[in-house]
Q: What sequence folds into this?
């Protein structure tokens, strides 16, 4: 690959631009057509969910495919995928607010299981997005990683939000299946390692 | 373990390929569309009952309406396209009303 092309592909703004394309298409579609804001709820929510799933898949994927350079390339850019997931969730919220029109309408359904799970997922993602920068990594030190683990409950709440808002298990579960498989593999591996270590260290 | 990448690929392909066709929330066996009443007529009839309809479409052979019910709930509702009978009303996935099961309709939630 020519080095000029390579340096464009490796530049962070390139990935940001790539991740912003669906949002640009959605917003321009909304502004130019006569679709209702509610028509974009599913699409924006699905992009957010897929991005958070993808960001979380990168860690177990890098364990499974150790040494693959493309996984390492993606892993170095994981924060961008996380921030993109939050950005699509915000866009999802904007369309929701436009669709609901009034605060009264929003408050009237906030207690529904399908709705509060969405709000909770978004609130959990907020500190993650705000601390997705070098300064926060340095300032929070070890706490940064602990804080970022909130992404897991945020993903579970996203799954619940998706399942209940459509009152349908299948599409959401299918989307989360790759992450669930990888996490299952990761847990199985650490259990196996844990037990074999325990065996070795047992007194003879 | 060596099949995990294949399982992942299959799962991902399934996720991309799953079609956004009929939602399967309700189905009406209402006969040919020629015998249906119009969506405009449904909107007019609902407006008289205090509904505000923002959008309507056909889903599962029923008319599906997005709007505000007379109580002020933002809902999604299904109506029979011939009789305009109310079949299902839900708010963000939470069922507020479901017509008791009868012959011309069935809950099409069988996977």
A:
């Amino acid at each position: 690959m020519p080095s000029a092309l390579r340096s464009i592909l490796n530049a962070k703004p390139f990935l940001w631009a790539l991740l912003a394309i669906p949002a640009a298409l959605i917003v321009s579609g909304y502004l130019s057509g006569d679709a209702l804001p509610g028509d974009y709820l599913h699409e924006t929510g699905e992009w957010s969910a897929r991005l958070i799933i993808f960001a979380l898949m990168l860690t177990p994927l890098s364990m499974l495919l150790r040494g693959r350079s493309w996984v390492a390339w993606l892993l170095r850019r994981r924060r961008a995928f996380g921030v993109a997931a939050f950005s699509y969730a915000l866009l999802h919220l904007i369309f929701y607010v436009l669709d609901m029109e009034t605060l009264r309408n929003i408050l009237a359904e906030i207690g529904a299981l399908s709705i509060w799970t969405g709000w909770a997922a978004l609130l959990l993602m907020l500190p993650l997005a705000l601390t997705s920068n070098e300064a926060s990594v340095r300032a929070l030190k070890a706490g940064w990683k602990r804080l970022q683990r909130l992404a897991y409950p945020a993903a579970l709440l996203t799954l619940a939000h998706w399942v209940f808002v459509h009152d349908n298990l299948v599409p959401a579960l299918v989307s989360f299946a790759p992450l669930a498989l990888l996490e299952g593999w990761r847990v199985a591996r650490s259990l196996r390692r844990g037990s074999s270590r325990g065996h070795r260290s047992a007194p003879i | 373990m060596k099949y995990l990448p294949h399982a992942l690929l299959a799962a991902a392909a399934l996720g991309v390929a799953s079609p956004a066709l009929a939602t399967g929330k309700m189905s009406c066996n209402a006969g040919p569309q020629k015998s249906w009443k119009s969506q405009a007529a449904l909107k007019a009839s609902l407006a008289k009952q205090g509904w505000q309809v923002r959008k309507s479409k056909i889903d599962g052979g029923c008319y599906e309406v997005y709007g505000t019910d007379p109580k002020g709930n933002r809902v999604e509702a299904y109506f029979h396209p011939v009789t305009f009978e109310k079949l299902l009303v839900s708010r963000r996935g939470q069922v507020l009303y479901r017509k008791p099961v009868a012959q011309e309709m069935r809950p099409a939630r069988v996977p």
Summary: Chain A touches chain B through 26 residues (CB under 8 Å). The radius of gyration of chain A is 20 Å. Residues 200-204 of chain A have pLDDT under 50 and may be disordered.
